[in-house]
Amino acid sequence: MSNKKFAGFVVTFNRAEILMDTIQKIMSQTLPPEKLLVVDNGTTDETKQKLEELYPEVAYIKMGYNAGPAGGDKVGLEMLAKEGYQWIFWGDDNDPPPTPDTFEKLVNLAESYGEKCGQVGMVGSRFNKFTGLLSRATNEELRSRSYIEVDTIGGGQCKIVNAKSVLDGINTEPKLFFGFEDLDFDLLQKEAGYKILVHSDLFLGCRERWNRMSVESTVARKKDEKVLWRDYYSIRNALFIMKKHRHYLAFLSILAVSFGKSLLSFKHGMRYGSLVTRNTWKAVRDYGLKRYYKQAI
């Protein structure tokens, strides 16, 4: 067995100052990674210079183009798994661990469960294979157990992956570029028999910190127009993932919900409704035409 226990990577794109803050919080953990790798998705800012100045011990690789989270994650996972590390922190440049002992608690949980633990994290959801929707655990369930089993842990939730699953061939799909690449990875792990666990105390702490002890359901809420491009990737990639994993009812459900939300979005005005509807049509069209990776939206 390798004596390389724990490493991590962070994917970044043009957020040098935010990245430096995230690295500082990672390296200040009670259990910091033995190796930290920055995967640079083609930044044009001072990321490399700041790393050399402030954190010369951090490994660095530049993709040469913007491969999106899906492409950058694949490189980070593959590199560290092949180097022999047992557990790999899968990080984003703007999502540092929120408490000083986050990594220690998560790695301890992973090791206590055994080799069939595919990953651990702070926040996770359960996946409905008939609707394609994610549901949250109750506060009562979290308070009654030290950890719970979920179906997926989203990006930015201190996701720590069992490297063995990567060596077994489970990795992100680069053509997804952005959106649900983590869900695709997690479904592959579940299909291979791995368990996905979240730490209950950390989960509850996140809910308290983010004021999400209870969440009201909203239908077609209005979003900032600047982030509507995310919906294009979410719809396109969700259709791809449901088909890939043979969740055909979920595929139909996502189609129906997406177009239903498009119609309801007109309650926020003609301009907003038109933007949402255009994104939805483009996503469905590009899925049908197999247009993946980064697209002009």
UniProtKB/TrEMBL annotation:
Domain called Glycosyltransferase 2-like: residue spans: 10-133
InterPro entries, per the entry: Glyco_trans_2-like, Nucleotide-diphossugar_trans
Assigned keywords, A-Z: Glycosyltransferase, Transferase
Source superkingdom: Bacteria
Family stated for the protein in its record: Belongs to the glycosyltransferase 2 family.
Protein name stated in the entry: Glycosyltransferase 2-like domain-containing protein
